[in-house]
Amino acid sequence: MQSSSGERHTSLRSLFATANNQRHKLDSIPDSSSAAYQESLRSASTAFHECRQLIDRLAIFSPNETEDDISSGDLQYLLIDHFLGELILKDCITDRKTVLQQARAAYERYLKLLDQYDMLSKIDSNLYQRYLSERDDFSLLSTSDPTARRNTKVTRYKQEQELKLKLEYLARVPLALQNDDAASREIYLAELQLCTHNTFHALDIINQELKIIALMPLASPAPQPEELAKDYRQRNGIPKDDFSDRLDPPISQLLGNGKAGSLLSKDGKPLRPFTLLDSRQRVQDGVFKQDHALPTMTMDEYLEEEKRRGGIIDGGGGQQDRTQPVDEDNLEKADMETMKAREWDKYVEANPKGSGNTLNRG
To answer: Model-level pTM greater than 0.70?
Structure first.
């Protein structure tokens, strides 16, 4: 009997190691939505579920025990539900609300087991009691005061970094010390503290996401395949015999197969509105015409129309303001222009550029 129990413990140890290796392999797959990632995810989740079932059959954990009653090698099995919660949240195929509810149930089993062995710290124990009292509204940042919320975030971040550093330090312990029961027990306890810290954070995120999903409108049910296979005319109550692919239905169909009556009465009065066309050839010519509006006048006609409307100015416009060239033979006019240019040169020399700007100088 003892040999059979020892074989089961060996099987559990190897199964847990396999599941843990599959969990770590997910980090090497970059695309979490790929088929390979989801397949590896299902394999790891299945392995951890088998570990849980084997633990239940072996009755490794009992409500009558304490932390000291758990062997150092069995402490790692307390993390199974936490790892299951992490894996379930990465599922991109199942309905998101179902995924969140399953992950929350796994995290709750993990916290319940630690609380049963009184392995939660004082801070985590208070958080767990608060979670039990306000399960659907649980939040790590329970206050609306921005300063208190910021202090809570900073405190939890520092706690997380300290736990990670402690775990990294213990993981660097030489192999000779890792084989020591006390050293390995300390490593497992440090990992449990870090996972507990992450569990409360995950429960907070899950509650926030569930509230967002609750506010989303319900999606309309997808049509059944047999409904999609039905003909459009059948779904809209259109008889198949009255259907025609012609774009220009015959006059009999326009008249409703005689049900609508004739266009004119016996006295020649119109009974229904209709349009008279002067020529059938005119209708045929308009079938294959361009779909855009063609020009109705030439450029010359357009310019004449613009000139008539006053849109074009005759007579040169601003050309009248241009300076006329000086006649070189008119000496008097040439002297006046020369004197004017000299006066301008003197003015420019006496008033250099920027000399009048005396207020805005630095």
So the answer is: no
